[in-house]
Design brief:
By secondary structure, the protein is mainly alpha-helical. It is built from 4 helices and 5 strands, in the order αββααβββα. The strands form 2 sheets. It has a 3-stranded antiparallel sheet.
Length: 225
C-alpha cells in the first residue's frame, strides 16, 4: 500500500501543480508554442464533461458526472485495498494507483476549482481566491486540460466509403496529466492481468509426473517342509 500511496501522491502533485500554473498563467484557449508548424502544444481549455473533452448533459449532467466520479473513486480504492491484501503484483497495484490518482485529479478540478478560481476567458486570466468568489458552485467546476498532440493530419482518401476527401487530425482531443495517468493505468492493468493469467493457466503448465508408489515388500517365505 505504501508504494501505491507514493505513486498516487506524485501523480496528484504533478497534475495539480501543472493545472494551477496553466490556470493562472494562460488565457482561455491560449497555447504555446505559437508557431503553426509545431505538432505539440500546451493549449489551455476547460473541459465541462468527461475525459478528452467529451461533454455530458449541461449543468445537471456536470453534477451527475462529478458525483459519479466520487463514487467511482471509492470503488477503485476498495479494489486497490483488496488487491494489496491479496498480495497482487507490484505492477498491478501500480496500475490501479495510476487510475485512482487520475480520477482524483479530475475530481479536485470539478469539485473545487469553481470555488477557488475566478473565471478564465480569452481576455483575462484566472485569479486564485478572488474577493468576489469563484466562477461556479461546489461540484460544478471545469477540468483544466492542456496537452494537445496532433500527431498527423491530412485528408481521407477519395475512395473511402465514409468521410471521402474530408480533412482530419489525429490526435485531436486536448487532455491533462490525470487523463494520461488513467489511460496508462488501464493499459498497464490489461497487460499485467494477461501476464498473470498466462502464469496460472493450467493448460500451459507442465504436467508433473505422478509420485512414485513405493513397492510393497514381499512377505518372508515360510519354513521349508
Amino acid at each position: 500500500m505504501k508504494r501505491a500511496l507514493i505513486v498516487m501522491f506524485l501523480v496528484l502533485l504533478a497534475d495539480q501543480a501543472l493545472k494551477f500554473w496553466v490556470k493562472l498563467h494562460f488565457n482561455l484557449d491560449e497555447y504555446i508554442p505559437r508557431v503553426s508548424d509545431s505538432r505539440y502544444y500546451l493549449h489551455f481549455i476547460e473541459n465541462e464533461g468527461m475525459a478528452f473533452g467529451l461533454t455530458f448533459g449541461g449543468e445537471s449532467g456536470k453534477l451527475v458526472l462529478t458525483l459519479f466520479r466520487i463514487v467511482a473513486v471509492v470503488v477503485i480504492f476498495m479494489i486497490l485495498r483488496n488487491m494489496v491484501k491479496q498480495g497482487a503484483g507490484n505492477w498491478q497495484i501500480t496500475s490501479m494507483a495510476l487510475i485512482l490518482a487520475g480520477a482524483l485529479g479530475n475530481i479536485i478540478d470539478s469539485t473545487f476549482y469553481g470555488l477557488i478560481f475566478s473565471e478564465s476567458t480569452q481576455f483575462q486570466r484566472a485569479v486564485l481566491f478572488p474577493p468576489e468568489g469563484g466562477y461556479a458552485p461546489l461540484f460544478h467546476g471545469a477540468v483544466v486540460d492542456m496537452f494537445y498532440f496532433p500527431l498527423w493530419e491530412g485528408h481521407f482518401p477519395s475512395w473511402s466509403p465514409i468521410w471521402s476527401g474530408e480533412y482530419f487530425i489525429f490526435f485531436r482531443p486536448v487532455f491533462n496529466l490525470a487523463d494520461a495517468a488513467i489511460t496508462c493505468g488501464v493499459a498497464l492493468l490489461i497487460l499485467t492481468h494477461r501476464s498473470a493469467r498466462k502464469q496460472v493457466d493450467p493448460s500451459t503448465a507442465p504436467i508433473a509426473d505422478p509420485p512414485a508408489v513405493p513397492a510393497t515388500p514381499e512377505a518372508p517365505a515360510g519354513p521349508a517342509e
